[in-house]
Each structure stands twice: as C-alpha cells, then as structure tokens.
Amino acid sequence: MLSHRFLCSFFFSLFTTVLSAGCRDSDNNCRDWVGTDPQTCKHTDYIRINCPFSCGHCGSVIRKYDITRLSPDLASLAWLIGKWRSEHGGKAIFPTIPKFTYGEEIEFTVPDDKMQAVRAINYTAFAWSINDKDELHSEYGYIAVKPNTKELALTTVMNNGFVTVEEGKVSSSYIKFSLRDIGRISFSRDLPVHDLVREWTLLDRSTLQARLHMETLTHGMQEHTFIRYDKIAP
C-alpha cells in the first residue's frame, strides 16, 4: 500500500504541474509592473492575483530570465527579457548584396546581482542561412539605461569586425537606437558603415519585431534587415 507521504507528494507535484501549464498573466501590464517594483507581488492584491507568471508563481524561473531580479534602472527593459527565435523569417536587402532570407535567435538576460559596474542587460544574437544553417552573423553586447530616464545605450561586438555604440530611448514596447560611434578592424571585408538605426518593437507578449536601417560609404540610409521573432523562453 502506498504511504500517505508518497500520495501527498505525488498529488502536490501533479497539482503544481497542472497549475504551471496553465499559469499565465491576465493583464498585459504585469511585466512592467513587476519589473518596476517586484514587491508589488506581495503587497498589491490585484498584481498578486492577476500576474502569477511575472511574479514567479508558475514554478521556478531560470535565474537569467527572472525579471524580479532587475534593478530599478533596468525595469523599463523587462519586456525584452527572454529568448526570441525566427527559424527562417528574416529578410536582408542592400544594393551591394543579393536579397536573401535567414533565421536568427536573440537573447536578453538579467545581469548578475554582484555586478559592480553600470548595470546592463546582456544581449546576444546569432543568425544563420536557412539552407545549410551556416553562421551568417553574430553579435554580443550590453544594454544600459541612464538612471532615472528612458535613455539607453547598446554596445555590441560583431563577428564581422565591427564594434558599435548606439543610443536611443525606450517606451513600454518600443526601442529605437541611433549610431553614436563605430569601430572597424582594418581587414574587415564589409564596407565602412557610416550610420545605422535599429528598432525593436513588441507586437504582443510573444512576438518581437526588429528592423535595421543602414548607411555605408557608397549607399545612403535604407532598410537592411527585417525580422519577427517568437518568444521561446521563458
């Protein structure tokens, strides 16, 4: 005969699994509220009841995606946190290259609590060709927010030999960066970039759109890439 302790443990695990499977926020503002002040999950009844996912009540959340760990300066970026992927939805176009489609995965994660420098969200991106999955482009960087403002900066290092500093502003579901400075290794095969504009737009809680405009030594500002990602984590 099964022990009482075993049965209790079994039904608790089953209940937790079922709860987590259907656990979701019922208000689209939950992520912003909790990102701004995680304590509202404890002290505000409406948020505690209607924001179980953002409050971390749906089971354990991977630490790097836990928005309750965001510092107040980074709260405006809570809607970005997660892993986003498009298998083959990217479109690239520019006068110096043939048009092509691509896949890409990007990730925004919460920084380590012990970071002593300016707090910044970690950013990575990896793009591949849709035919043979070869690497097309990768970049790594950080997104920092100027304290007590909506102004932010993105720094990136790219595998094509470019390093960028971009600055812009963030709203509840939109970010627009403009190029402030750029470095380029002497033997890069790509044309010198004179300017770029990067936009990220949250279309809904599970869809992120990215658009990049670029100006080079030989061609004026125009759209270079466009892609829509699905959220795959958390």
From TrEMBL:
The keyword Signal applies. CDD domains: lipocalin_heme-bd-THAP4-like. Keywords: Signal. It comes from Mesorhabditis belari. Residues 23-58 form the ShKT domain. PROSITE patterns: PROKAR_LIPOPROTEIN, SHKT. This is ShKT domain-containing protein. Residues 1-20 form the signal peptide.
